[in-house]
Each structure stands twice: as C-alpha cells, then as structure tokens.
Amino acid sequence: MKHPKTTLLIFGILILIAFDLILTVGVRLALKGTIEKRPLGNPAKIRIQHPVYHHGLKPNSFSNQERWGPQTYSVFVNSLGFRDKEIRNIPPATNKFRIVFMGDSFTEGPGMDFEDTFVGILSDQYADKNIEVLNAGIGSYAPTVYYIKTLYLINELKLKFDHVVVCLDISDIQDEAINYGIANGVVTARIDSFPYTTKMFIHDYTTIGRLIQHYSLKAYSHLTHPYSETLRTQREKDLSIGKIRSSWTIHKEIYEEYGKKGLEQAKIRLQSLYELLHPLGISLTLVVYPYPDQIINHDLDSIQVRFWKEWSQEHDVNFINIFPAFIKPNETELAAEETIRKHYFQGDDHWNKEGHSLVAQNIAEGLQQIGIPPQ
After folding, report:
1. Scanning 103, 212, 219, 318, which has its CA 20 to 30 A from the CA of 17?
2. Residue 94: left (phi > 0), alpha (psi -120 to 50), or beta?
3. Where is the chain membrane-spanning (predicted)?
4. Taking a C-beta distance cutoff of 8 angstroms, is the pair 134, 57 a contact?
5. Please, which residues bridge with residue 75 across strands?
6. pLDDT at position 41, please?
7. Quick one: pLDDT band at residue 33, thresholds 50, 70, 90?
8. Considering the entire predicted model, what is its pTM?
C-alpha cells in the first residue's frame, strides 16, 4: 500500500458518512415512522415532475394536508393540473371568456385555501360575468416556465383561452439568471444537477454532514458576499427583509451579480411568450408587485417597475403595477413595517389573506381598464 495514511483517512470518512446516514434515518424511522425529513410536506403526492415544463400538480388530485410554514391548507387540482376550487374537468374549449393566470408561488397561493387566494377571489367575482379563470401558476416557476408551459397548453393540450395574466415575481429574475434554461423544447434546471441533488441528499439524510454543510456555507456567504443574510436581526427575519434573492432592485452589487442578467433573460422569455400569443389573438397582461424588501426600502420607482413598464408599452401589453398599493409616498419606516405585518405571513415573503385581497382588487381594477369584464 503506497499511501496507507491517506487510504485509512478516506476509509474512515466513508465509515463516518455511512454511520451518520444509518443513524439519522434509523432514528427518524423509529420516531416518525418514515425516513423522510419532511413527512408532511407532500402527503398526498400531488406535486409531480413534468417532462416538458419541469414540475406541476398531479391532475385530478387533492390534498388537505399541504404545509406552508405553520399553515396547513387544502389543494384541489383540476384535469389540467391547475389549482382550483374543486376537482373538475376543464374542456379544451368553452363559450366563456377564459383567462389563464401564470406565475410562481405567489400566484399558486401557498398557505391559503383557493377561495382566499387572489386568483380564487377573481374567479368568484367573474363567475357570473361569463368569464372563466384558470390558475396555471406553481411555486418556483419563472418566465422560462411561463413560456414553455403556455406553449404546451396550446400545442399539446389544445387549450383555448382569450387572455393571459403573467404575474412577474421579484424572485423570477434570480431564477432566470442562475436556474432555468431550455434544451430541445424542454425546461432544464440547475436544481436537477448532480452537485445540487448531492447537497440536498446530505441535507435531508444526514446529521453531521448537514451541520458541516450548513455552517460552512454560512461562513462562506458571510465572508464573500457584501450583503450576507447570516447576520440578519430577529426583526429582519420576522419581516422577511434583507434577503439577497429580493434585493437586486435595491443594491447595485446584487443587481450586477445576477439582476442584470436575469432581467435580460426574462425579457427574452416574455418576448417569446408574446410572439406565441399575439398571432393567435390572445391578449396579455403583465403584473408586478413588491416584496417586503421593496416596501421597507421604499422602492416605489423600482427598476422592476420601470423595466417592465417600458417593455409593456413597446408591445402594447396591459401593465398592472401593484407597488403603489403597498408603498406610499413619503411614508415612515414604521408605516412600511405595519404594511408588511398586515399583508404578509410573519417571517415570509408571501401574502396572507389581507395581501391576496388587496392584490385581487388591484388586478381587477387593472383588467377593467382594458374592458375585462365588459360593462
């Protein structure tokens, strides 16, 4: 044996990893009856991988134990794989004016029953006006997925609709910069790569490995990033502010890191979406809204607003800016904090019932400007 010490060291590390894995899953199995780290995260297995647009919901399924933080809520999925008020069949064509909402988790509405989400509220409001509302939004979507999924709905499912509302999230820009791509007409994602899946395996099925991973990544972030999240105060955590993912509109360094690239990539995908819809006579609305970081920093004239307002004007696309509903001119930091606490879950970027109600109101007013519904 040429290098006995090195061989013994490698062998010892492998034994430690195996021991860590066996002990972790063994204890978890004994205490919880499962080796899964999050056994209640998807009890009905309604969330599935999709061969074309990466991930979605299982058609004609139901779960009454979906979890979002401390909230437990119900999810019904219709025949298209869209979140809905109930399990129901959606025919490809209808004599109603049909609106498809496309977005990420904000549009899906985590932690909320469907009727309390902004899409559910609008669906109920439009029900007696010969308008059908469909919610194609799912958590972690971004413009790449918006485009490919819409293409799939039109070409593969032969779904007929009249209007698309894209709810463009602040986090979409980071997702476009670092996560999503397209290969052979299929959405690809960095989270499916070997390094990422290995990282998640260590996190979910080991204890020592997870702690080493957590603190080493935390230390690396603190030492290398000018706006590290590792030193956030409890107040910042409660308000869900000071996050790198949502601060690209505020800090130039973060904008240069991924914001600029993400905006350009998102623009390419939305351009493709527009060029898909326009020849078919399907009109488009683009919606932007703030995160707590934009509210607390009074980012009213945000680059997110300016960039997409200009793009919408160039393409004659209806543009709904919900920033003013959450950010008032010359308001104090205390007032901004009160706005966050009123409309968002504590410690979370996402809207609570009050937030969804406010967003529904603003989208309804914005759609009315283009005659939806007609008076």
Report:
1. 219
2. beta
3. 6-31
4. no
5. 63
6. 45
7. low
8. 0.89
State whether residue 132 is helix, strand or coil: strand
At 319 the pLDDT is 98
88-127 confidence digits (pLDDT tens): 999 999 999 999 999 999 999 999 999 999 999 999 999 9
Q: Measuring CA to CA, how many Å separate 120 from each of 57, 83, 170, 309, 357? A: 17, 9, 22, 26, 10
What pLDDT, in 10s, does the model give residues 328-345?
A: 998 999 999 999 999 999
Structure confidence at residue 128 as a pLDDT band (50, 70, 90): very high
Query: For the CA atoms of 326, 356, 47, 285, what is the dihedral angle to 10 degrees?
Result: -70
Q: What are the domain boundaries of the chain?
A: 47-193+227-368
Edge-first strand listing for the sheet containing 131-135: 62-68, 71-77, 83-84, 131-135, 97-102, 163-168, 283-288, 318-321
Q: Measure Cα distances from 191 to 40, 136, 196, 218, 307 in Å.
A: 22, 21, 6, 19, 28
C-alpha to C-alpha distance for 196 and 205, rounded to whole angstroms: 14
Residues 6+ apart with CB under 8 A from 310: none
Q: Could you tell me the two tokens for 49?
A: 């991988």
pLDDT tens, position by position, 185-237: 999 998 766 665 666 666 677 777 677 766 665 565 556 666 667 678 899 99
- Return the structure tokens found at 311: 């793009």
* Whether the Cβ atoms of residue 104 and residue 75 lie closer than 8 Å to each other: no
Residue listed under structure tokens 């390094």: 195
The residue whose two tokens read 């409001």 is 125
Q: Which residues touch 94 (CB under 8 Å, ≥6 apart)? A: 132, 160
Residue 29, both tokens:
């199995």
Contact 188, 181 (CB under 8 A): yes
What's the rounded Cα separation, in Å, for the pair 80 and 58?
A: 9
Residue 138, Cα to own-chain centre: how many angstroms? 7
pLDDT score recorded for residue 194: 62
CATH superfamily of 47-193+227-368: SGNH hydrolase (3.40.50.1110)
Hunting for tokens 């945000």 — which residue is that? 302
Nearest-angstrom CA–CA distance, 7 and 135: 56
